[in-house]
């Protein structure tokens, strides 16, 4: 590890920025923003919206920062571009920074209702459990399956919009959560196997992981279609059916991706496409349920 004495004036700021994993945190922030706006529409209370979004943003930053802190020794060996391994920030600074985000999260949650606080605490425990070792086991997929449904539920509860339809979202989001976990782990399968990390993607292997991702998203799409056809969750046809059609097109792209575009350099693009497909399905379905 580079010595901290070699840091230039802007290195620490860059290190703190990179510790927050800006790309993934941005995706989560966009998702919770979409869900919170849908839950509050058309009676938007901006202070409540900002508190809901800000608290979730702070929680995601804490999980990201403490993820790098927990992985600091492995990163020195295999991911030297990480901020702690590069010497941009010290391990102690990262630990304090991560806890500062947790404190900020709780401060932002205090004006909201107790259920939003409880859901956020559960998500935080799942995220930090993932950091502390679960991500190196097949249980990593279960963590995602449990955590992903909490994002829309938290957003709707945070803006004080409870609905029985949210319970239909749980199995759908669980399937999408496992798909996201597998696609996120895809670029690291070889490295994780070398380090004896038994992630769900490592257990399945590359080929079955690439097969499982579109199948999981397809299963979630079929479930949404069944909920709509059986009127278990009443959706606006002009929104939900075009959404499902577009999602099916993207599922086909995910399915044929390994044959036409797969390389070791664009697995992150596959993950981003999976994220976009999942977000489109979830936001389109919720829009059809709650926008009248």
TrEMBL record:
Keywords: Membrane, Transmembrane, Transmembrane helix. The chain crosses the membrane at residues 12-38, 44-66, 87-108, 114-132, 139-157, 163-182, 210-233, 239-258, 270-291. InterPro entries: Prenyltransferase_related (IPR050475), UbiA_prenyltransferase (IPR000537), UbiA_sf (IPR044878). This is 1,4-dihydroxy-2-naphthoate octaprenyltransferase. It is found in: Membrane. GO terms for molecular function: transferase activity, transferring alkyl or aryl (other than methyl) groups. Pfam families: UbiA (PF01040). It is a multi-pass membrane protein. GO terms for cellular component: membrane.
